[in-house]
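Changelog-adjacent note: as of this version, every example in the card shows the full chain rather than a window. The one below runs 343 residues end to end.
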Amino acid sequence: MSLIAGSYEKFIWGYKLKPSNHYSSDQKTLTLTQLFSYPAHLSPITTVAVSGTAAASGGTDDTIHLYDLSTSSSLGAIHHHESSSVTSLAFYTPQNLSVPRNLFSTSADGFVSIFDADPFVLLTSVKVHKKGVNDLAVHHSGKLALTVGRDECLAMVNLVRGRRSFYHKLGKEASLIKFDGSGEKFFMVTEEKVGIHQAEDAKLLCELDGKKRILCAAPGENGVLLTGGEDRSITAWDTNSGKVAYCIEDAHSARVKGIVVLTKNDGGGTAENPYLVASASSDGVIRVWDVRMAIKEKLLPLAEAKTNSRLTCLAGSSIKSFKRPRIGDSAPKGEEKASTEDS
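Full-length structure tokens:
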């Protein structure tokens, strides 16, 4: 299991999560081993993404940096977003593969860029929003993505044809958008509220009201959505009932800037294989939790790492892959459109 975090101080942090031989819920039983740490960007890092051994980071220096986590090495940088900050990154990995097929990036000039991930080459860029794109969510089919932007609009991108297919004015700016695990619902975050929508027609099913502004979110299993933000807690929402399933109060001493679900509770887990969630805060602390123990009055983290930097984002992956990612120079001749459709 791997974690990667970006910071305001331009540093990228890579960690490997290693379990111990004995599991005990009342003490730290996992270790976050640092893989690397160095100033990868020329300005603050805004977003990170991980899939298997492939990782990527984007920043306000208009570049995307790529990493191979298996060797803790840099693969180089993509200087595609000229004069425009990279605002979000996302990998698409088919369910039957352990390596990503595509990398998607969004920028402050309203574009969505689609890259092949083997090797990393640009396929196409699509102008989706009139202003900057805040976030992007890729459907598990790999055929479409939803975006929200500073123009207060929701958009859908056809990833097979490489063009925008839907554009709707929301009337308010959404900062985050996520699909649930089934792809039948999506979640849209606006300040302290989370709207749960039906994916087929974008119908609003219900709205969740957090205490304070939500800064990060991650879908879990069985309709659970984990959120964190200015309340310094990790809240798990039951999106079927619209109620709070559980909450890790004061998970951090500062704002929660990133949440990652590292393992899935598929019914085959044991006490030695806990349901893991990682979180990062703006004071530089990364923690790993077994959320099954959240019913306790004071939940203790299973592992912790202190970066002594102002973290801005967190990503992770539990997918094991033995194929090394590589970077390419240009797309194959004649290939202008994205192709994320299964062969």
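Structural remarks: The longest strand covers residues 30-39.
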